[in-house]
Amino acid sequence: MPIDGLFESEESMIRHGEEILVSDMAKENPLSGEYELLLKNYKKMFKQLCRLVKINDRQQSKLSQANTVLEIHSKHDPLTGIFNRRAFNELYEREWRRSIRYGHTLSILMFDIDRFKSVNDRFGHQAGDDILKHTARIIGDSARREGDLAARFGGEEFILLLPDTSGQGAFSIAENIRKATARMSFHFDGQEVS
Predict the structure, then answer these.
(1) In the beta sheet, which residues pair with residue 188?
(2) Fewest C-beta in 10 Å: which of 1, 26, 126, 141?
């Protein structure tokens, strides 16, 4: 019945009541039968309370886990798996203030997939989704350091936040991403699309 010392005083009262019932004083008292019934009902209610507290603890734990999952989903793009614009906006605000406060550089790269709409229209949304996923993976792999953040900005637009990265460093990363995406090729309806 006890729940990690949460109800120590109640448990003590039950023990004390049980001691009274077995004492010589209770045997001579005409109200001891009513006291015994009262103690029995109190123990029953106490047992139910302990059960309810355990159920509440389990539900709180499940709710906490669900909130964690919800928080993760609210910051990730469901198609590409990388962060979404909301997550970018939150981190950008922090990193912007930090870069001003400490005088650090902050680079941001923005990407847009060329001719995406025509590929999407011609080969269908599944083809477009494949291209978005592969592009997101390339950009996401470029966010290597703690604080770097790759996000889907919207549609076929991606953004990469690079704290403590110079313009030259950002240019180098952008060029590597450009080359990697240029090497990508897909086959839809027997045609190669790059």
Answers:
(1) 191
(2) 126
What are the residues whose beta carbons fall under 8 Å from the beta carbon of 112, sequence distance 6 or more? 156, 157, 158
Q: Which residues contact 134 (CB under 8 A, 6 or more apart)?
A: 184, 186
pLDDT along the chain (194 residues), means of 10: 67 80 72 81 87 88 78 86 94 94 96 92 93 96 91 96 96 96 90 86
Q: CB of 124 within 8 A of CB of 116?
A: no
Provide the H-helix boundaries in the chain.
Answer: 8-22, 24-28, 32-74, 85-102, 116-123, 125-142, 167-183
- Helix (H/G/I), strand (E/B), else coil: 168: helix
Nearest to 108 by CA among 11, 193, 188, 173: 173
Active-site residue identified among 36, 93, 146, 156: 156
Q: Which amino acid is at 142?
A: S
CA distances from 81 to 26, 75, 84, 91, 176 (A): 71, 10, 9, 17, 21
- DSSP state letters, 46-69: HHHHHHHHHHHHHHHHHHHHHHHH
**pTM, to two decimals:** 0.67
For residue 159, which of 90, 99, 105, 111 has the smallest C-alpha distance?
111
For residue 156, indicate whether it is catalytic.
yes
